[in-house]
Amino acid sequence: MHQYRIQGGIPIRGTVRASGNKNAALPCIAAALLTDEPVILRNIPEIEDTGVMLLILQALGAEVERLAEHDWRITAKTIAASDIPAELSRKIRASILFAGPLVARTGKAIMPPPGGDVIGRRRVDTHFLALQELGARITVDGPFAFTANKLAGADIFLDETSVTATENAVMAAVLAEGHTTITNAASEPHVQDLCNMLVGMGAKISGIGSNILQIEGVKKLHSTDFTIGPDFMEIGSYIGLAAATRGSITITGVNPRDMRPLRVAFGKLGIRWTIEGDKLSVALGQEMKVNTDLGGMIPKIDDSPWPGFPPDLTSIMTVVATQVEGTVLIFEKMFESRMFFVDKLISMGARITLCDPHRAVVSGPSTLHGDHLVSPDVRAGMAMVIAALCAHGESTISNVYQIERGYEHLVEKLQSLGAQIERVELD
User: DSSP string spanning 189-239?
Assistant: First the structure.
């Protein structure tokens, strides 16, 4: 068990490089099961979740070899088992991403219900509906069991724009017989990364980046060498950190196209940046003032499926808003427990009214004071780190395992920016 010990009130300054997109790496690792030839994946972030996914691959019989930092070769020449170990499946929600590849490759997948963040009800019904449309039979008495004699293309309408359900459907459909249409598909950059990786393996997918995907099934996929894109969730977190601590930062390895929804939301809080090539810079002296809507109305920052503002950053925006002059409504539509972490921000001195499980009104700027905090999930945990770094005095954060599931070398990166943070082991 570890915790973070943080001394706040120090502006961060410096340069960091964006890590690989966690939410792209996880399905791409699972997709390596779709071929018996070697798959090389580059720019894989070194975080807990990717480590668990690689362990699951090994448990299924795949050979996993580290080529260099962030680069891995995966060879699933044979798949020795279709049962995902319970102790690994329960660690991360992304374990369900093995359902599509295993059913497509072996006709069978068995796994306990997946684990992951406790941020409210996270339904898996859409996964089941999509795979059933393709011909899979599913039982949920005890472990989830997916079986299929043969997958066949289908016209699938997803009942929600689920990222992981879209990814599972795509991975199953690329080896299904015939044509598949997936409507109301998720189109986030990580979904696009998965689709582009599969195309590099010989899959036939069109409509990438839209909410309608057309897939022509093929009999076999081959090897590929694919590089994961940058993690715009991490980038958004560091932008928020720089602004909240009244510091500055340069982030390299950025994809400018990913930043457009973030620019709109941060702009409502008076936060701007410049981009040159793949380099994003947040300068000192940000306005840090809420830009009201027409007529002086209180603006809102709300999440929605891509290309809307990503829900994973609403926790970050809530903390940043505590340091901005004015009032803003944060509206997190997708997960009914994600906003409950604000009680800790209130105990630190933040002026926040939690209207209901989805909406919080934040008025700032507020002077925050150090406190003992417990991370409930990846993004709220990072939000607490930002709050601690802009607070007066010392804070401690427990359950940092949750934070490190999504942020690569977080302590080392923050220390390189001048943050007073250390990771200490508890007795």
Answer: HHHHHHHHHHHHTT-EEE-TTSSEEEEE--S----EEEEPPB-HHHHHHHH
